[in-house]
């Protein structure tokens, strides 16, 4: 059996890598000619990708926090793009409040997680009127906290508010690696009709590298026989593009075919 190894590392900041690092085009030189009707398959053996997909960002339109506080007055807090835990988001909002002049003896906002229910409780240190924006069309912080469209805008000092839904701090449950060479013919978990060649579950700490090594490597039937380039790209489990924040990813695989 003949084979062609796929060992690539994406190169953020170059024309070959786009979409914040989530799309990479591998140039094959010279072209790879695969004999027709030789059972050509595309295999993935290992993938490495950094887990830092932002849950708050300008692109998601949920990084702006507009409110009027009893002492702080009208404020617009812009939260830096990033992957935030409950404690890190609380810390960042309190930093912004301190910078805006908050001089209270308690943190401006307290966000208390409940590990058993995956919900949070919310409390402010002064009366706050929040402008949540358009609750129907905008994906803003109220969805991160777990509120629905019936969310209140008026928060009273020292009162705990309990959103009815699970907090949405993790808006990506899986990273899907797509490959156009196996388009429409991949058999992953015995399901055909997809160009997905790897499903990577984030099971590491934020900022760490996920290593995907399947026990049984999924394969896809190669969909063309003269290969000059191969495109790889990442989405979440909903098929939406993800932002890899220009971190590189690596792929180890192989194209095999009968001689």
Q: If you had to describe this structure to a student in words, what would you say it looks like?
A:
With 259 residues, the protein is mainly beta. The chain has 2 domains: 2-53 and 172-257, Jelly Rolls (Sandwich), CATH 2.60.120; 64-155, no CATH class. The protein is built from 2 helices and 18 strands. Strands 1, 4, 12, 13, 15, 16 and 18 form a 7-stranded antiparallel sheet that branches. It has a 5-stranded antiparallel sheet with strand order 2-3-17-11-14, with no helix packed on it. The longest helix has 14 residues, at 86-99. Residues 185-192 have low confidence and may be disordered.
CATH architecture of the largest domain: Sandwich
CA-CA gap between termini: 6 Å
What's the shape? elongated
Whole-number count of domains? 2
* Unreliable runs: 185-192
| Strand tally | 18
CATH topology of the largest domain: the name is Jelly Rolls
Helical segment count: 2
Amount of beta strand: 35-45%
Summarize it.
This protein is mostly beta strands and 259 residues long.
